[in-house]
Amino acid sequence: MKSYEDMALHTDLYQLTMMQTYVLKGLQDQKVVFDMFFRSLPFGHGYAVFAGLEQIIDYLTQLSFSEEDIAYLKSLGFKKEFTDLLSDFRFTGDVYSMKEGEIIFPNEPVLTVEGRIVEALLIETALLNIFNHQTLIATKASRIKQITGEKKTVDFGARRGHGPGASLYGARAAAIGGMEGTSLVKAGKMFHIPVVGTMSHAFVQSFEKEQQAFMAYAEENEGNVVLLVDTFNTLKSGVPNAIRTAEELKKRGKRVDAIRLDSGDMAYLSKEARKMLDGSGFPDIKIAASGDLDEYIISELESQGAAIDMYAVGTKLITAFDQPSLGGVYKLVEVEDEGKRRPRIKLSDNIEKIITPGRKKPYRILNSRTGRVEGDYIALADEKVPQQGRNLLLFDPIYTWKQKTVEDYEAVELQEKVIEKGKKITVHPDIQEIRSYREKALSRFWEEHKRKSNPQVYYVDLSVDLWRLKNKMIEAARSYY
Amino acid sequence: MKSYEDMALHTDLYQLTMMQTYVLKGLQDQKVVFDMFFRSLPFGHGYAVFAGLEQIIDYLTQLSFSEEDIAYLKSLGFKKEFTDLLSDFRFTGDVYSMKEGEIIFPNEPVLTVEGRIVEALLIETALLNIFNHQTLIATKASRIKQITGEKKTVDFGARRGHGPGASLYGARAAAIGGMEGTSLVKAGKMFHIPVVGTMSHAFVQSFEKEQQAFMAYAEENEGNVVLLVDTFNTLKSGVPNAIRTAEELKKRGKRVDAIRLDSGDMAYLSKEARKMLDGSGFPDIKIAASGDLDEYIISELESQGAAIDMYAVGTKLITAFDQPSLGGVYKLVEVEDEGKRRPRIKLSDNIEKIITPGRKKPYRILNSRTGRVEGDYIALADEKVPQQGRNLLLFDPIYTWKQKTVEDYEAVELQEKVIEKGKKITVHPDIQEIRSYREKALSRFWEEHKRKSNPQVYYVDLSVDLWRLKNKMIEAARSYY
Question: Shortest CB distance from A158 goes to which of B129, B158, B324?
């Protein structure tokens, strides 16, 4: 993971000035707990898909300052007592995380860091940077895939991502979220994602005639003959030339696999093209569509009966165009003080922005009768939550009168330890495994949580003990000022 | 530029399948010309700021396939005749480009590639990926900087960019666009951008009392004492504690430099905080603001007389939140055929999407009397456009009755050769130079082009010869089908 080396300075300056302060005050070994979570779902979607854990783990386990880094920090005025400690600096804490591909919700700890305050601070920027990006794109991909259903759907966004890194790791996240291929060859190589794509307008233009281009391509790329038909005029030129090419190839025992539409009214064009292909004896030539597609346009196309067999999504997926930021945060929830663990809280005038204090564990509550989800349940880490039980009370932490009791439930712990004393203790699953995990996790949700518009809000509730602690701390902090 | 090595496979699969086709057909050495440009301005802004050239040049001059890359392509089914050529593959063409920091407009060639068809194709994805990202962020930064004017404005976006690469190169682009600092330390180190930042909420929370945190920080970070005042309550706790800290430091001959507001109604809070600071004898303590700011919010704050001295912008800048994609394209405009250069065109039902054919040169037309811009002027490369002259006719290429004559003009050629036969022939300017170039270039524009809403549309016109060629080719292509 080359790109996740040399990342020690991939941090905000204030992390380093704060670290220096702790070091100079002799507080650097204070034990703390930070939770990483996000506050609201993007795109008006009903859930998010966690992605980026592999890169987070690689970053944490490779973290070290080079001599060049240290020299640069000295040039900024950092003091020797501090910079001297950096040559041997490693991340030595423990990390607990949900699995990549997990279905996640606002205000639950996706990942929890336990460590010394200096190391826990330093890593905030990179952790959020990776989490915010990959989770955003995976969520967008999952949202799109829900609309395209069984139809093959692939990522064509490379040129429109926010630079090479965003396109590369965006392709990874898109695959986790459900995309079945990518046009970006390096992503295929690094993450074992199937690569897809055939020809561009420039290729067609570079020949005197459109059909020359089609034939040249078909002759040299058997098995992947997808002809782009909109360079001049889709129905008057592109599709007829594709049919002529298919006829020519048929004589040689070969075939055209598909045509690709990239502009114009795709509902109309796809239906007309389908008729022309069928009418010429080529019902097996598929139709692919690309060109500024997103879940809304695809949904419209599907409802108009477009004859499209495969969708390629680019800009709108790889930039998460309609909401290009997740807004994940990383908050201090506990500080060890003279050997005692003390929960911490941050207030806000906005009640939904007040963090939930303390070292916690998130659980997914499944109804044992239906096998489906009832809600997520966050308890203090030292509370006993039996794996199976009866009559669990779930109540909204703000609107507490909103409550329900689950008669027979199974409580699945969502976090597992992934780093122990700075060492990776899990094996990175491959992309296919992560994608399957996402599919399986999602299958336990109700359709109401998965619909594109106005999904049912999923419950993320607190245990009674945790709720009491939080309210007690809010009161104490408020009365203080 | 570590990140721009190992980029040969950072390309869409179709570039490679097309390359293979040309190679197998013996067409790989066909000479072609591609133009890189964009079609419409983001954010409703009046201009864009070109950024990313340094990375584009690094990419092109380092481009090579590793053995691993070649093995991967073989595993995908690419043929030996093609993959054998890749071990020695280098980019050997010429590149002409506008300068980084240039003020650019839709439909003019920002960068032009002349080379063999196989190399010109391969590079499309990476060129656009870099150009689209950095130009987008530089443009957003320039737009924000126009609103903040003389007030120091910095990039705080690292955690919200689309992954580490997007944040890093986004910080670079933001500096080109006018940001005077970044919180991202690695960007400071790599690009020599001033780094900024002081403390987070977690730092304040980690102490028993807010003022303890302030004092600890102030004692160890002289010269950069910016206290974050909203962890508990800005006016009841944060500002009073900042004042107490300032009083304590004053006794020791030291000082608090600034406070930072990060939430709440910043117009009200900044004015109240200003009064409290002034009233306590600290008129020199500055007020910085951060927290989901963009040009609209800052504009509102300024019009409400907010007492803010410095702005830090994050998410909205680094993700170009309101329009996170530029949509730059790279189009074939000329093909050499039996030694003759033949212009190429791509039609579209949307007249504004029809490309302008041929090898061209863009000029900026300055009015010799005012020293200000009149419009950009695109001519065929072999046309003579005198550097100075009289009575130049500018006319809209679509609405041709929209025209004007510039009596005394200066024509400044906007592109220069940056790569010759694959070798870099210019020196990368540093970020400060690029930023100054942008400022100087922008100073030649009228306020009407620079305003935030409904800016005056800037003319990008064609020479008469180029306009005639384009129309002739449109007619010829249309009559063909």
Answer: B129
Residue A99 within any structural domain of the chain: yes
* Structural domain includes residue A394: yes
Is A324 an 8 Å CB contact of chain B?
A: yes
Beta-carbon contacts of A257 under 8 Å, excluding residues fewer than 6 positions away, are: A223, A224, A225, A226, A285, A286
- For the cut 60, the answer to whether the pLDDT of residue A2 exceeds it is no
Tell me the pairing of strands B310-313 and B286-289.
parallel
Distances in Å between the Cα of B152 and the Cα atoms of B97, B312, B383, B432 are 31, 8, 45, 15
Residue ranges for chain B with pLDDT beneath 70: 1-3, 349, 480-481
Q: Given A24, A185, A197, which is nearest B220 (Cβ)?
A: A24
A77 & A207 share domain = no
Q: What is the pLDDT of residues A356-404, one digit of tens each?
A: 999 999 999 999 999 999 999 999 999 999 999 999 999 888 888 888 9
Instruction: Please tell me whether residues B215 and B358 are part of one structural domain.
Output: no
Mutate to test the interface with B, among A43, A59, A137, A185 (most CBs of B within 10 A): A185
Residues A38 and A128 reside in one and the same domain: yes
State residue B1's pLDDT score.
Answer: 40
What is the spatial distance between Cα B89 and Cα B84, in angstroms, rounded to a whole number?
A: 9
- Domain of residue A77, CATH code: 3.20.140.10
* pLDDT classification of A13: cutoffs 50, 70, 90: very high
Q: Exposed/middle/buried for B153, CB within 10 Å: 0-12, 13-18, 19+? A: buried
Position A481 confidence tier, pLDDT thresholds 50, 70, 90: low
CB B130 to CB A163 under 8 A? yes
Residue A184 within any structural domain of the chain: no
* DSSP, res A465: H
Beta bridge partners of A289: A261, A311
| Contact: A203, B18; criterion CB under 8 Å | yes
- Domain co-membership, B25 together with B87: yes
Among candidate residues B266, B284, B302, the one where a domain is terminated: B284
Together in a domain, A336 and A472: yes
Residue A215 sits in the same domain as residue A279: yes
Residues paired with residue A319 on neighbouring β-strands, in sequence order: none
Calculate how close chain A gets to B206, using CA atoms only, in Å: 7
User: Which residue out of A11, A13, A72 would a mutagenesis test of the B interface target, given it has the greatest number of B Cβ atoms within 10 Å?
Assistant: A13
B384-414 residue pLDDT tens: 999 999 999 998 888 888 889 999 999 999 9
Which of A313, A373, A371 minimizes the C-alpha distance to A143?
Answer: A313
What is the length of chain B?
A: 481
- Domain count of chain A? 2
Which residue of B5, B7, B9, B13 to mutate against A (max A Cβ within 10 Å)? B13
A positions 51-70 inside 8 Å of B (CB): 68-69
CA distances from A332 to A22, A23, A272 (A): 15, 18, 59
Boundary of a domain, candidates B220, B254, B284? B284
B233: contact with A, CB 8 A cutoff: yes
- End-to-end, the C-alpha distance of chain A in Å comes to 48
Query: What ipTM did this prediction achieve?
Result: 0.96
Domain CATH for B241:
3.20.20.70
User: How sure is the predictor about A347, in pLDDT bands with cuts at 50, 70 and 90?
Assistant: confident
Q: What percent of chain A has pLDDT over 70?
A: 99
Instruction: Answer yes or no: do A211 and A333 share one domain.
Output: no
CB contact under 8 Å between A158 and B221, yes or no, is: no
**A85 & A9 share domain:** yes
| Minimum Cα–Cα distance from A201: chain B residue | B346
pLDDT at A46: 97
What is the separation of C-alpha A273 from the centre of its chain, rounded to a whole number of angstroms?
36
Question: What pLDDT is stored for residue B205 in this prediction?
Answer: 86
Instruction: Please report whether residue B183 resides in a domain.
Output: no
Q: Identify the domain containing residue A206 by its residue range.
A: 197-285
Min mean pLDDT across A131-145, A280-294, B174-188, B334-348 is at B334-348
Q: Is residue A1 pLDDT above 50, yes or no?
A: no
